[in-house]
Amino acid sequence: MRLRDAVESRVKELLEKQAVAYTSLVRRGPTIFALKHRPPANQPVLVRLASPQSGEGENVILDLNALDSTGRTAIDWYVPSADGKLVAVCLSKGGSEDGSAHVFNAATGEKLADVVPRVQYPTGGGDLAWNKEGTGFFYTRYPHEGERTAEDQNFYQQVYFHFLGTPASQDVYAIGKEFPRIAETRLEMSRDGRFLLATVANGDGGEFSHFLRGPDGRWTQLTRNEDRIKTITFGPEGTLLALSQAGAPRGKILSFPLSRPTQARVVIPETTSTIDAFLVTDTKLVLARNTGGPSSVTIYSTAGLDPKEVDLPPVSSVAGLVDIGSDAFLVGVQSYLEPFAWRRCDAATGTLAPTSLGTQVDISFGDATVERVIAVSKDGTKIPLNLIMKKGTARNGHNPVLLRGYGGFGAIESPSFSRIRRFWLDCGGIVAEANLRGGGEFGDAWHEQGMLTHKQNVFDDFIACSRYLIDSGYTSREHLAIEGGSNGGLLMGAVLTQQPSLYRAVVSHVGIYDMLRMELFPNGAFNITEYGTVKNPEQFAAMYAYSPYHHVVRGTAYPAVFLLAGENDGRVDPANSRKMAAILQDATSSGLPVLLLQSSGSGHGIGSGLNARIRETADVYAFLCDQLGIEVR
């Protein structure tokens, strides 16, 4: 059997047999809405659940697999009405994330006639919030044809209101003319339906402002970018709760009255851990914190008193907190060795219990272990590195190692479960996950040390992790492969050109490689607050110093390279990958392959169907096995 066929057979077996999983949970009264993933189906199904405990009373609202058998239609996001009777669903095709809102009856799955276009695009995303009566919704709207020039069609996001049963052309403007060109807006309606909160990000660099619409329809600006307030949500008894990084890079929680936002008081002060997310229930305030990658969860009273720690599995992460009433909430938990599962937490005691939304698996990692080690970067900064391997793996310098990293936009690389990791471990391999600067693992300061003119720190951190793996005997240059995507693709391009002799193989998904033209693409303009602009001399110098495309040197012995791109990618133009592949193919002297795969039916990887993911995963691992000399039967 050919290597590619053998790899695909194993990948297909692993991915098609994965258990049913529920994601994107939303509660409305006693009802839970969720996306139900049930391989081998291509796309998830939108369902309504009577209870997360019993698993009974489930009904299907929208089955994308019946709607589009090709698997190319995806749900970008969905929002149920306040009474749970209707659901607005944003749908897009071919991985484009260019979405329109459709409305469905939650009980019957019947589709209403309403279709609202231009509510979502990958540059600034999109969102929606129903009014209390369920007669319409506020939504994010991009310019329609003729309203802006062609180059501004995917900018200047504003908020409009749509009345059900009326044409979208009659929708009413609400707010947004004062928003920045690169606004990314999220909407939240208060539980009583009287107030609407708009959170407006100024691009992707971590700056936010907030606006509040009162019962009289008037809008008030609550915060500005310089206030360093990241998140605001509705609290108890007419208050707002906010996650602030002002003078607290790891975050603190503020409370202030709806009517007097200037009268903020600290409810929970900054600690040594980074606040990642928080949830407000009727009686509790729940904080998910990050401790350099792994998570912790603490329950407080709404006044910030009486803390109780939730007993989470070791080296695990939390991805989701959902209030389910009755003084309880759901916690989504996973680790490198245990799959994602929703667990019910008793808010009074902090104890966890399984739910029907837990993920049952037919695969075990009982023979594996996780080591969390520290690499030291060029400037002395300590970088956490997580190693997943079989127990008893020898440090003989011959283990195939796949090192991954991201390091940008304040994103936290937390422990996550992957069935494909079973394939790599069975090949005798080690998976290494790095917590680089530019992420948010240690708060806002950790992010700032890896953005704008400090971006080189991210690459230095990754190179330090690479050398640690070699110097500590886990692997050697001949057995070291690296992988990253998007901003992590930029990371791949930078370390590939800065340290070509350090790696045997590089896999880079939907990467940015030409930093000097980055901002000329629609989503690149949103990235200016993270990367900088060529119009600023200092930032230009920093970007030019690491721009991968501009540092490919003819005659250099580059490692084997596999670049992947999506034709419909609205976040990173696939021209980046085409150009990088061409210049590397022309320049390399190693004789090793430089390959480019541009998929015609995909985008940035978001919303891709299962069949497409199987093919791409098989391509990647066949490439890695071939280059690292791994036999697969």
Written description of the protein model:
This protein is an alpha+beta fold and 633 residues long. Among the domains are: 275-360; 368-628, 3-Layer(aba) Sandwich (Rossmann fold), CATH 3.40.50. 17% of the residues lie in helices and 36% in strands. The protein has eleven helices and 36 strands. The strands form eight sheets. Strands 29-30-32-31-33-34-35-36 form an eight-stranded mixed sheet, sandwiched between helices. A hairpin with a 7-residue loop joins strand 19 (252-257) and strand 20. Helix 1 (3-16) crosses helix 11 (610-628). The N and C termini lie close together (7 Å). The model has no long low-confidence stretch (mean pLDDT 94).
Characterize the main sheet. 8 strands, mixed
Termini, distance in Å?
Answer: 7 Å
Low-confidence stretches: none
Radius of gyration: 24 Å
Features:
633 residues; single chain; Rossmann fold; 11 helices; alpha+beta
Question: What is the fold's blueprint, element by element?
Answer:
Layout: H1 3-16, E1 21-28, E2 31-37, E3 45-49, E4 59-63, H2 64-67, E5 73-80, E6 86-93, E7 99-105, E8 111-120, E9 128-130, E10 136-141, E11 158-163, E12 172-175, E13 183-189, E14 196-202, E15 208-213, E16 219-223, E17 229-234, E18 239-244, E19 252-257, E20 265-268, E21 274-280, E22 284-290, E23 295-301, E24 308-309, E25 316-325, E26 328-335, E27 341-346, E28 352-354, E29 368-376, E30 382-390, E31 401-404, H3 420-426, E32 430-434, H4 444-448, H5 456-471, E33 480-485, H6 487-498, E34 505-509, H7 522-526, H8 528-531, H9 537-546, E35 560-566, H10 575-587, E36 594-599, H11 610-628
Parallel strand pairs: 31-32, 31-33, 33-34, 34-35, 35-36
Antiparallel strand pairs: 1-2, 2-3, 3-4, 5-6, 6-7, 7-8, 9-10, 10-11, 11-12, 13-14, 14-15, 15-16, 17-18, 18-19, 19-20, 21-22, 22-23, 23-24, 25-26, 26-27, 27-28, 29-30, 30-32
Helix pairs in contact: 1-11
